[in-house]
Structure formats: structure tokens, C-alpha cells
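Morning. Coffee machine broken again, so started the prediction first thing and wrote up yesterday's gels while waiting. Chain of 471 residues, entered below exactly as on the submission form.
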Amino acid sequence: MAETTQTAVEERPSVLPELRKAEALPPEPPGNSRVLFLSTTAFFLSFAIWALYAPFGPYFREWFGLSAGQALTIAAIPALLGSVLRVPVGILTDRYGGRRVFSVLLLFVFFPVVAAMFANSYLALLLCGLFFGTIGTSFIIGITHVSSWYPQAAQGTALGIYGIGNVGTILATIVVPILIEKVFKDVQVGPISGWHFIFPIYATPALVMAFVYWTLTSDAPRRGKPKTFGDLFSVYKSGGLVWILSFLYWMTFGGFVCFSLFSPTYFNDRWEIPRDQASLIYTTIFVIITALIRPVGGYLSDKIIDARKLLTIVYSVSLILLGVMSAEISFPITVGCIYGLGFCCGIGNAAVFKLIPTYFTQVGAVGGLAGAMGGGRRLLHAHYHGSFERPYRQLYPRLPGLVRYLSGLPYSLFNAQALLQAKDLKTHVSKILYNFSRWYSQANLPPYIYPSCTPAVSLPGLSVCRRGVYG
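Came back before lunch.
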């Protein structure tokens, strides 16, 4: 018996150091409801500010004589820095803690939001939106802060609850039009029109929350030695798993972005639903469903089913729903499919971020990359929708962006299945990356179409990409 044990240990020499390292770590923190509540509240407010320009789009187009492309750009510009900076901000959060970074971010964003009060040109609005778009990095700060306070067995649920903050976008999309039409419509103070006063209404709570967050939250005790910046950056070279998880989040959160941005236009153009109903009722319900279902996805990942299996189910169901939706059988069935996709996106978002702290200690660095890819899709969708809307609709008058979202799902499903089969989640990564590069290189697509636009699945409308309509 002793010889057998000794042989087993000799065959797995790399296991012992890891076990000793794990034994040396202090016990996992039990959780912190105050940090979870304040992080979720701050995230809710942050996303309301991040989405502030979206409801202004039609009004800016009228007031400043903007083109459709300019209106879409100004609505999406906060996503630029808010997405790109998620990587460095995630690394800073790993290094210095969520309390410091979140408080500083809320304090910083107060100034460009107030500055927008005095913007009276397209360029000035773009610059203000670019800088207050940094509030989009709040997502990964809170993810890192909350996950550091909860044990692995409860991280999925805790991060799912935190993800409810996504619904903060409704605070902008619903309230801003009401303020413009009902409160500030006829207000004029010197050279400042009434609508300018909306910006300090959203800026002031950010300043207050910066003080509250600094005063009432705390960072979790560090488990192990503090990591250097070199240690944090090294995770991007550790293997393809980092990039695969980021791509999976690109699809789940990208689906949420796709349908929340383009559903109002789709409902109005295809089904002749009035614009106010399409935006304030049908699209709002979709956003609420996606946000509120995240805790369910986190709980399922924690208690019921492995997150990898859950992702495989999510992508499979999404493919079925998208196939039914593309048939456009009736308006109720189409809406039901879109809301079903909202469930899938919310559950998928939670499952991906359950996996990140499970397999990586650099939650901010890895989650920042995933968040950057997911958030950046918002800007890409706006660009392609604005540039190719007219020829796209002439040949395929369905939801703009549907093809780009749908075509990436088979590859996401393949990734999820490969991750499910891999014993250590890294066995098949190199094969996945090779297959993807080979698959994409043979897709015969215009060079400016990003990888998710591929005619990999034979469903109605996918031939549009193959024919190069966007060119």
C-alpha cells in the first residue's frame, strides 16, 4: 500500500506544490453583503451614466442636424473608452483593490458629465461622452471587488446579483426622454437650454456615491502575496483559455447588446410598432429580463449544474430560438424568441463570470479582457448598423445585426463543448484556436467584417454575408 501511494505521488510531482500552496492560503472569506449591495448600487448608477447618450440620439440629430451615422456614433461613443480601459482598470483593481479604484472612478466621471452641460457642438459632445464613458469600466471593478469577498461556492450567485446593475441603463433610456419632453422642454437659462440640466442630475449622485463607497466599503483580506504588474499581465500569455472565455462573453453579452440596441428599430420597421412603445415597453422588458435572470444563472452555476454544461445548453437553446425568430411566424412568437434570448444571454453572462474566478486568481485582468470584448461589441454594432443599414434591409429586412450574432453561436457552442470535455479546461485550447483561424480564413468574407460574421450556418439570410452585401 505504501509503495502504491509513493508511486502515485511520483507520477504526479506537480500536484504537491499546488496542494501545499493551497493549504498555506488563509480560508476563503465568508461574504460581505454591504460590499455586494453598495457595489450593485454603484454599478446601477454607473450604467445609467454610461447609457446617458443613447436616449439623446434622436434629439441630438434634430438639434444639431446630424446624420444617422453621426447620431449612432455619438450614442455609442461612451462605449469606446469604457470598453478599452476595462483591461488596465481590471489590472489596477487586482493590484490596489476595488474600494480605491471604484471611488476614484466615480469621482473622476463627475467632471466630464458636468462638462457636457456646457457642450453645444457635435465635437464637444463627443469629447464629453468619450471621457464619461470611462464609467463603463465600473463593471469589472465591481466584479473583482465582489468576487474577492465571496467563497468559490457562492461567487456565481453573488456576481449574478451584482450583474443586476445592468438594468441601470433603463434609468437613462426611460427618464431622459421624460425630462426632455415634460420637465425641461421650455426651460432656457441664458445661453443654456433646458436639456443641458439633465447632466448634473446624473453627475451629482456619482459624486455622492464616490464618498459613500470610500467610506462604507472595504477590501477583502489578501490571500497570498500581492501580485506585481508583471504577474497580472502574464495571465494573457498563460494559454488560450483567457481568450476563449472572453469570446464566450463576447457572444452572451454581445447578444444582449445586439438586441437592446436594434430591437426598437426592428419592431418599428418590421412590425410597425410605434417607436415609443418599441423602446419604452418591448425593449425595456428585454433589458430587465436579461439583467434579473443573471442571479439565477449564477445560482445554477453554484448549486445545480457545472457552468460549462450550462453554457453548452445556453448556446444550443439560443440557436433554436434564433432559427424560429428568423422565420418571423408572427409578432408574439418573434417577441417570445427575443425574450427567450434575453434569458439565455443573462444566464450565459453569469456562467462565464462564474468560470473566471474559478480558474484564475487575476479576476480583474481576465474579467477586464472579457468585459472589453463584450462592451466593445456595442461600438462595432453601431458602426456596422449605421454604415450598412440601407443595403442590408433591401435584401434581408430583419433585425439588423442578427446575422452577425447568429453566425458566431456555432463556434461558441463548439468552444463550450470542448471546454466541457477538457479535464483541465486547457487540453483543447490550441486546437480550438487553430480551427477557428482555419475556419475564418476560408470564410471568403470582406476584410472589414469581424469574425462573428460568417456563413457557417445555413439559415435564412446568412447568404447575405457570403455575397458581400456590405461592400
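The radius of gyration is 23 Å. Going to sketch it on the whiteboard this afternoon.
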